[in-house]
Amino acid sequence: MSNTYIGRFAPSPTGPLHAGSLVAALASYLDARAHHGQWLVRIEDIDEGRSVPGADTAILALLDSLGMHADGEVVWQSRRKQRYQDAADRLGSLAYPCGCNRREIIDSRLGVAPDGAAIYPGTCRAGLPEGRGMRSLRLRVPDAGQDAITFTDRFMGTLTQHLALEAGDFVLKRADGYWAYQLAVVVDDADQGVTDIVRGADLIDSTARQIYLQRLLGVPTPRYLHVPVVRNADGEKLSKQTGALAVLPGDEPAAVQALLEAARFLGLPLERPDTLASFWRAAIPAWSALLAEREVRP
């Protein structure tokens, strides 16, 4: 296994870590350890309006209490805005100002992208309409027929997304002035040397856009592995908005139980260990065995 593996877990500090986030954290940590690689933690607080004060430190403390220790300095996106500006500048004329509001885009009736966003109709591609000011910054995607992005997910196999038809020109900087997730994550992963991204399957629809940005910026494309997301009784993705309960720091038995539930959700057939140390001794080789059984290689 490669010694150059660098993975990461990148929570948003919009509240405490919940069971769904713990699954993603555990998968990324186990993959890094199974590859004898590094595991980094990044706080994705670029959307400062949604960040909850103190949530970042609570998340870091919880990870530490679970035995998930980062191998490098923690990075906060809110401190890296100039890096995102630099990247946007490098995109040149492919990044263009857009004066459309949300209602106008929805009313265009081009449809909805897989992530739920309305597909942009290209209204401002040729320049801002007269009397309009810039609301957001968008990235021009290739025209239909040249817009296919294909990649191999390590669990799901070969996937293709057509950017023009399924996403449209997407936002790099939002109308509220915050840099968008798609740009920030690509810049951060490149700067941190991330080689492998392990995250929830709810983000798989972002992957093609991120690969397109990576190619434009001339940075490497990591390997991707998307794991299933935890859902509530109504079938909704478990999140703070759907009533997800926080994973709370507690004694060692409680920590072991939380990790065991996450591991079993990932398909690891673990017996209940007595200690955190015994959990990690069993979980890492169990993840390696799961990879040997399920991993799709390009």
From TrEMBL:
<dbReference type="InterPro" id="IPR022380">
    <property type="entry name" value="Glu-Q_tRNA(Asp)_Synthase"/>
</dbReference>
<feature type="binding site">
    <location>
        <position position="240"/>
    </location>
    <ligand>
        <name>ATP</name>
    </ligand>
</feature>
<keyword id="KW-0067">ATP-binding</keyword>
<dbReference type="InterPro" id="IPR049940">
    <property type="entry name" value="GluQ/Sye"/>
</dbReference>
<dbReference type="InterPro" id="IPR020058">
    <property type="entry name" value="Glu/Gln-tRNA-synth_Ib_cat-dom"/>
</dbReference>
<keyword id="KW-0436">Ligase</keyword>
<dbReference type="Pfam" id="PF00749">
    <property type="entry name" value="tRNA-synt_1c"/>
</dbReference>
<keyword id="KW-0547">Nucleotide-binding</keyword>
<comment type="similarity">
    <text>Belongs to the class-I aminoacyl-tRNA synthetase family. GluQ subfamily.</text>
</comment>
<feature type="binding site">
    <location>
        <begin position="8"/>
        <end position="12"/>
    </location>
    <ligand>
        <name>L-glutamate</name>
    </ligand>
</feature>
<feature type="binding site">
    <location>
        <position position="100"/>
    </location>
    <ligand>
        <name>Zn(2+)</name>
    </ligand>
</feature>
<dbReference type="GO" id="GO:0016874">
    <property type="term" value="F:ligase activity"/>
</dbReference>
<dbReference type="InterPro" id="IPR000924">
    <property type="entry name" value="Glu/Gln-tRNA-synth"/>
</dbReference>
<feature type="binding site">
    <location>
        <position position="44"/>
    </location>
    <ligand>
        <name>L-glutamate</name>
    </ligand>
</feature>
<feature type="binding site">
    <location>
        <position position="98"/>
    </location>
    <ligand>
        <name>Zn(2+)</name>
    </ligand>
</feature>
<feature type="binding site">
    <location>
        <position position="181"/>
    </location>
    <ligand>
        <name>L-glutamate</name>
    </ligand>
</feature>
<keyword id="KW-0648">Protein biosynthesis</keyword>
<keyword id="KW-0479">Metal-binding</keyword>
<feature type="short sequence motif" description="'KMSKS' region">
    <location>
        <begin position="237"/>
        <end position="241"/>
    </location>
</feature>
<feature type="binding site">
    <location>
        <position position="120"/>
    </location>
    <ligand>
        <name>Zn(2+)</name>
    </ligand>
</feature>
<comment type="function">
    <text>Catalyzes the tRNA-independent activation of glutamate in presence of ATP and the subsequent transfer of glutamate onto a tRNA(Asp). Glutamate is transferred on the 2-amino-5-(4,5-dihydroxy-2-cyclopenten-1-yl) moiety of the queuosine in the wobble position of the QUC anticodon.</text>
</comment>
<keyword id="KW-0862">Zinc</keyword>
<dbReference type="InterPro" id="IPR014729">
    <property type="entry name" value="Rossmann-like_a/b/a_fold"/>
</dbReference>
<feature type="binding site">
    <location>
        <position position="124"/>
    </location>
    <ligand>
        <name>Zn(2+)</name>
    </ligand>
</feature>
<protein>
    <recommendedName>
        <fullName>Glutamyl-Q tRNA(Asp) synthetase</fullName>
        <ecNumber>6.1.1.-</ecNumber>
    </recommendedName>
</protein>
<feature type="domain" description="Glutamyl/glutaminyl-tRNA synthetase class Ib catalytic">
    <location>
        <begin position="8"/>
        <end position="247"/>
    </location>
</feature>
<feature type="short sequence motif" description="'HIGH' region">
    <location>
        <begin position="11"/>
        <end position="21"/>
    </location>
</feature>
<feature type="binding site">
    <location>
        <position position="199"/>
    </location>
    <ligand>
        <name>L-glutamate</name>
    </ligand>
</feature>
<keyword id="KW-0030">Aminoacyl-tRNA synthetase</keyword>
